[in-house]
Amino acid sequence: MATKISPLSGFPELLPADRVVEREVIDSLSRTFELHGFANIETRVVEPLDRLAKGGEIDKEIYVLRRLQAEGADDNTGWGLHYDLTVPFARYVLEHAGHLEFPFRRFQIQPAWRGERPQEGRYRQFLQADVDIVGRDELPFHHDVEVMRVMVEALDALPLPPMSFQFNNRKLIQGFYRGLGLPDVTAAIRTIDKLDKLPAETVAELLEDAGASAEQAARCLELATIRTPDASFVDRVRSLGVEDELLDQGLHELAAVIEGCAAGDHRGGHRKVTVEANLRIARGLDYYTGTVVEIFMEGYERLKSAGGGGRYDALASDGRTTYPGVGVSFGVSRTLVPLLAEGVLTGSRSVPSAVLVAVTDEDSRAVSSAAAAALRAHGVPTEVAASAQKFGKQIRTAERRGIPYVLFPQADGTHQVKDIRTGDQWDVDPATWTPPAEDLHPRVVAARTTTSTDDGDESP
Amino acid sequence: MATKISPLSGFPELLPADRVVEREVIDSLSRTFELHGFANIETRVVEPLDRLAKGGEIDKEIYVLRRLQAEGADDNTGWGLHYDLTVPFARYVLEHAGHLEFPFRRFQIQPAWRGERPQEGRYRQFLQADVDIVGRDELPFHHDVEVMRVMVEALDALPLPPMSFQFNNRKLIQGFYRGLGLPDVTAAIRTIDKLDKLPAETVAELLEDAGASAEQAARCLELATIRTPDASFVDRVRSLGVEDELLDQGLHELAAVIEGCAAGDHRGGHRKVTVEANLRIARGLDYYTGTVVEIFMEGYERLKSAGGGGRYDALASDGRTTYPGVGVSFGVSRTLVPLLAEGVLTGSRSVPSAVLVAVTDEDSRAVSSAAAAALRAHGVPTEVAASAQKFGKQIRTAERRGIPYVLFPQADGTHQVKDIRTGDQWDVDPATWTPPAEDLHPRVVAARTTTSTDDGDESP
């Protein structure tokens, strides 16, 4: 195994201390989802190619599997790695429908793969966290509010920078354009979706190219500028004077989502997440039919969307039964890997151990192991020193690993513990002593600010 | 998405209630590994093919990745899915050695993939749980005892049938054969390894074919029959009269592992796991150099080994530095999927919710949501009824999901809760009431015995 090792671009791997942060994010998301009754599932990583490849842009990013030494007709398995969690979830619902209770609330936290060019926030293997609610034949609108609210609470509880939820509603946009009398509603949505890349005048020209009058184009742009932290967008849309039944429904739904996600703060007013109606969010064109959302991480808007989702009236269908759904996906790798790479966050230590038990000499290793077993018996993560070096060296080993306490077995059978941060040392009984709660497990900590330098020696 | 769905052979997928069991197994293993100071890592799922393919039997089971529409030279990525967690871990150690503290204790619980013919306990995608300790240049023997002991404790804590650890030591076998004067020690090990497939006489003939005398062959077979639950195997080996320095070392090490794993029961004498010295265990031929172990699940010996591992003096090397290691791997899918398929175990319910809040009518949904939020605020997993059906129907919804409690908001602003198993109903305050601990989260339960019928109507 003397081959030279080089990292694979687009396949980020975490060191143990950074993995502490990723696990806490996964655990925290899971806790919130489960508090709301969402069941966890995992799907296999492969799907038949005819289910993955839809003729779109993403097709050429699919990784296809073949067997290494298979030949001829057996060369290809006909399977590809999934590129999101929605396609496999839709298949799971169809395959297992007879064993599921609807509405089915599920969360799924798994990697997905895309053969795209890697860049900050975009990886070839990346972890996603999805929540969805799926009904059989029908799914009342109140589940839109429910699932969005769950993701708001889940991201609010994370040790990450504040997130911003930007909501819109496809019925609102479609109804407005229809009420305005636009000749091609779909084309108009596609054009307005370019507002984050093109100046407003250019977008107006494109709308006119697609058959809109100058007046209609101006109204479309006006609609797209509306952005409010509450339901006041309703009056601003009304003031544009467009009347349409679908528009009314969209306004009603969007107001309910905004109010449902903003209301009833669950942490005494200290919520980090912000919620807005942003009427230029369109979120692609294919399957969304109502609520749509894009999530951004404050200070990291350059990563573009940190997540998103919405309502789809046909997540899956087997020809007889249709399964409508509403859900939202959060990019764990997309947000976390850049934060870890910048050193914004890390784990407070690289090992789970809260205590290192020192070894006086190899003959008494069993004494140290017994003390470690006594600590573990009441839940204290503990390791025993690998070798009976001088105590100073054993303490430095603990220091390098971030282990806060070193336990010393004494010749008379008693024990002393040293807090290596303060140097304090005192008698303890390993059968009963527990470190303070904040020292018991690795925590997520701010590593260093992104603007500071690593090394004082670099100052001019 | 109207394509017909059929399961992919070798890619088992779990329903939500069975996933409860898998998650508890993962969480329980993780808790034990962390109590012993093992840090968690995950590696990317792909490795360069030249690192995976070693010219052995496994090569043709490797799944290779290519891009769907890539052509010509770009057709193949040169990557394959890993088929175990040892190859990627060895690469991780080499790649990140400068950032790791040695001895490095890690655990890793991830899927691996093999394109083999699926059968009970053998899948194309399967979850493995590995613990290893890796040193730089050297790794004292006491870590053999440590890592084996950790896996004994980890499997002992699982809600699975009892496991049996069968230990041997490669130095013991090699030293014995050398001391016996066998002409080809490696060939003899390979031959003895066939004892579980061939009768003893045939193995003796094969040994003689490889140059052993009848007397030597008989001694080899005698060694292989030794099996003891303690260190008494030492005297039995000594009585065979073979003298060799490597044999002495192997006897000493194996005795230390057996005693270290059997001693100091950590749960008041109620350990399920059994530990034995079994001198016919050889565990392949390639990289083990000392301790070897195979794990079996009682009553499921037909699945063959449920896990295994051992000591390897060169887990990895970059030409200058060698990294010796010792570790053991447990097959989560291999043991769990057959148990779930047989219905031996399942989750106590298919949803995390301990409480369903009933909805009196759609206009008062907000009242029910507020009660749910009050329950969640102190950690009670809660869902709100999807529709304002008659209460009897809402109770049956809870029943089908296995949710034990239904909360009813009353017209006067108070609340009542019903235990739907007993029918008892009483006043509660959702801001303070918590269900009993055993009802709070889904638990692993015995589903039904494998010999009982599902349905009383099937009796003759």
UniProtKB/TrEMBL annotation, chains A, B:
The keyword 4Fe-4S does not apply. It is an enzyme of class 6 (ligase). Its EC number is 6.1.1.21. InterPro entries: aa-tRNA-synth_II, aa-tRNA-synth_II/BPL/LPL, Anticodon-bd, Anticodon-bd_dom_sf, His-tRNA-ligase, HisRS-like_core, HisRS/HisZ. The keyword Transmembrane does not apply. Residues 103-352 form the Aminoacyl-transfer RNA synthetases class-II family profile domain. It comes from the Bacteria. It catalyses: tRNA(His) + L-histidine + ATP = L-histidyl-tRNA(His) + AMP + diphosphate + H(+). Residues 426-460 are annotated as: Disordered. Belongs to the class-II aminoacyl-tRNA synthetase family. Homodimer. This is Histidine--tRNA ligase. It comes from Nocardioides bigeumensis. The lineage of its organism: Bacteria, Bacillati, Actinomycetota, Actinomycetes, Propionibacteriales. The gene is hisS.
